Amino acid sequence: MTNCCSMDKEEKKPTESSIKTQKSVLDRLNRIEGQIRGIKNMIENNTYCDDVINQIEASRSALHSVQIILLESHIKNCVVEQLQQGERDVIEEVLKTIKKLTK
User: Residue 33 to residues 23, 28, 48, 58, 59: CA-CA distances in angstroms?
Assistant: First the structure.
């Protein structure tokens, strides 16, 4: 993650927190990728529809968890930094993102 969320201001290198977040997100995305392949196989093998639907929901839920992790990291790092620099427009950006997540 080489964005404002991953950079230590003075050293301009990833912070320990951002490295942990990135690893967690990548691990989760790898599992989700496997779930999606599994869903594809289930459909190819004519698996019972309800079972496929349950797996799709599990994948959707896992993606939602990734969104929450990234939003939390963004607020704790990027947003705080931008507010400290007087960039108040970031508040509207975050509110817009939260509205999208809660639809």
Answer: 15, 9, 21, 12, 9
Which amino acid is located at 59 in the chain?
Answer: S
Query: What are the residue boundaries of the structural domains of the chain, listed by start?
Result: 16-101
What are the per-10-residue average pLDDT scores of the chain (103 residues)? 50 76 96 98 98 98 96 92 95 95 89
CATH superfamily of 16-101: Metal-sensitive repressor, helix protomer (1.20.58.1000)
Instruction: Find how far residue 52's CA is from the centre of its chain.
Output: 24
Cβ neighbours of 40 (radius 10 Å)? 11
DSSP 14: B
Helix/strand/coil for 7: strand
